Amino acid sequence: MTHTDPQLHGVDPRVAGGRLTVDLDALAANYRFLAEQSTPAEAGAVVKADAYGLGTGPVVEALVAEGCRKFFVALPEEGLAVRASAPEADIYVFNGLFSPEAAAFYREGRLLPVLNSQSDLSIWEAHGWDDEDAPRPCALHVETGMNRLGLTPERAKIVAQENALTGALTPRLIISHLACADTPDHPMNRQQLESFQALGALFPDAESSLANSAGIFLGGEFLCDVTRPGVALYGSNPMNGTVNPMQSVASVHARIAQLRHVPAGATVSYGATPVGRDTLIAVTAVGYADGYHRSGSGAGVPLRTAQPVGSHGYIEGRRVPVLGRVTMDLTLFDVTDLGLDTLQVGDFIELMGSNLPMDELASACGTISYELLTSLGHRFERHYVRSGDHI
Ligand SMILES: *Cc1c(COP(=O)(O)O)cnc(C)c1O
User: Which atom of ligand 1 is nearest to the CA of 212?
Assistant: First the structure.
C-alpha cells in the first residue's frame, strides 16, 4: 500500500508502531440504529474533535450516505472540515462566537453558530453581514442545569420578546444539554426537560434539540425534534450497566517490537515493578503518547490501589495483561501463557476493539471512552474499512 494522504492514513504501514482501524459500516449501522431510536425526531450527528478522534472526512461521508443532514461540532474550524464532506448539511457550532471577527468566518463557511450568551447574540446581529436585511440563521442554547454555556431562562425570555418584534435573528434550533442522561432515574432529567420545554415554547418557529446519545434512550418527550448523538455512533455504550447495543467501530492494535524472557524476581519498566514468575514479555510500540493511558498501567500508578486490574491486550484468542508502567512510546504485555511458538516480532496485539470493548479499557484507565477516543494520537497507521474487509 502506498502512502497517499497522511491526514487520512496516518503513518506509513511499513513503519508504524500501531494501527487504528475505523469500521465505517459499523458506524453506519450505529447511525441507523440511533436514527430509529430517535423516531419521530430527526437524528443529527456530533462530530466535534475530529469525529471523536476517528477522522472527520470519512466519518461525515459515511453519515451523509445514511441520510444525516445535521452536524454538530465544537469549533468553527471543525465546521469547515465537515463542510468539505457535507456540502448541503446544516453545520452547527456549539461554542459560539468568541469575537466580532468570528462572524465573517461563520458566514463564509456557511456555518450556523450556537449562540450561548447576550454577547454572542449581539455579535451575530451586527457583524459579518454585507446585507443589513439578510436573515441571521442560528441556534440558541438555553441553560437548564449544566451551567456551562447557554442563555439563562430570564435572558431567553427577553430575547424571545425582543426578537418577536425585531426579527433580527432567525433561530432555527433551540438546544440545551442534559447533565445526567446516562442515569435514567436521575431527577435532573425530568427537571431539565420541563425547563427546556417551557423555554422552547418561546420560539415557536424553531426546532428543539435536547438529547445526546444517552438522552435518546430516555425516549419519549426527550427526543424533541432533533437528537444529537456523539459517542454512541463510535461504539461506546450510551447507558450505564446495560448490554451495549452499539457495534464496535474503532480498533487499536500495537505492533510487537521485541519479545524477551525475564526470570522471576527481575523488574520491568519505570519504577521497577517485580515480576513474580519467569515471564515472556511482548514489548509493543504504542504508549501514552498515542493515547494508551498511563493510568491503565499494570502496576506502579496510583489508580491500581483504587482498582487493582489494569489494561489488557488481546492476541491469539487470549487476554494478556499490561506489565508494569505504560511508557511514552512502549507498553509491555505478559504473554508467557502464549509462548514463543505462537508470537513473532511484527505481530499486532489488540488494545481496544471488538475483543476489548473501549468502555472496559476506559474503566481500567479510570476514565471514559470519550477521553480514550479523543486522545488517540497521530502515530497510528489509519485504516478505514467496511466490515468484511477487516485485516
Ligand atoms: C458532545 C455533545 C453532544 C454529544 O454527546 P454524546 O454524549 O457524545 O452523545 C451533544 N450535545 C452537546 C452540547 C455536546 O457538547
Answer: 9
Residue 349 CA to ligand 1 center (angstroms) comes to 31
Whether residues 169 and 278 share a domain: the answer is no
Query: Is pLDDT above 60 for 147?
Result: yes
Same domain for 60 and 196, yes or no, is yes
Q: How far is the CA of 278 from the centre of ligand 1 (A)?
A: 47
Domain that holds residue 59: 40-234
Q: How many CB atoms lie within 10 A of CB 383?
A: 20
Q: Is the Cβ atom of 239 under 6 angstroms away from ligand 1?
A: no
Distance CA(201)–CA(192), nearest Å, equals 14
pLDDT tens figures, 241-252: 889 999 999 999
Q: Which residues pair with 52 in a beta bridge?
A: none
Average pLDDT, the chain: 94
What are the grid coordinates assigned to 349, written together? 496485539
pLDDT at 388: 57
Residue 30 lies in a domain: no
Mean pLDDT of 96-101: 92
User: Which entry of 31, 48, 288, 314 is annotated as an active-site residue?
Assistant: 48
- Residue minimizing CA distance to atom 6 of ligand 1: 230
Angle between helices 187-200 and 153-166 (to 10 degrees): 20
> Looking at the 3D structure of the chain, how many domains does it have?
2
pTM: 0.95
Does some domain include residue 242? no
Decide: residue 233, CB within 10 A, 0-12 exposed, 13-18 middle, 19+ buried. Answer: buried
